[in-house]
Design brief:
The chain is mostly beta strands. It is built from no helices and 11 strands.
């Protein structure tokens, strides 16, 4: 399984970005997918996840601003990020978990990881 993120960049506070994660090596749409982020010197934290049944979960810090979605036909995971804040600045990682799973925000549940894409939000 390979995961390749894209879509990161620099944006001013209040702006939007859409991250993409192209998955290959499997075709089972029941894989759970998640987005995580990490700032140097801090633990990697869960941002959003989507379960085998399509249910979604979000960290409290991004609820109402971020939206996770998945295109099963193309095997691409998205993270739409709106109303970005400077504290959203981090390296964002895509992750996949073998089914069946509930879309957890716990990083230890995930089996595969991408290399990350940097998001920088300036004030």
């Amino acid at each position: 399984v390979q995961l390749v993120e894209s879509g990161g960049g620099s944006v001013q506070a209040g702006g939007s970005l859409r991250l993409s994660c192209a998955a290959s090596g499997y075709t089972d749409s029941r894989y759970c997918m998640g987005w995580f982020r990490q700032v140097p010197g801090h633990l990697r934290e869960g941002v959003a996840a989507i379960g085998s049944d399509g249910s979604t979960s979000y960290a409290d810090t991004v609820k109402g601003r971020f939206a996770i979605s998945k295109d099963n036909a193309k095997n691409i995971l998205y993270l739409q990020m709106n109303s970005l804040k400077p504290e959203d600045t981090a390296m964002y990682y895509c992750a996949a978990q073998r089914p069946w799973c509930g879309g957890s925000l716990l990083k230890y549940r995930y089996n595969y990881w991408g290399q990350g894409t940097q998001v920088t939000v300036s004030s």
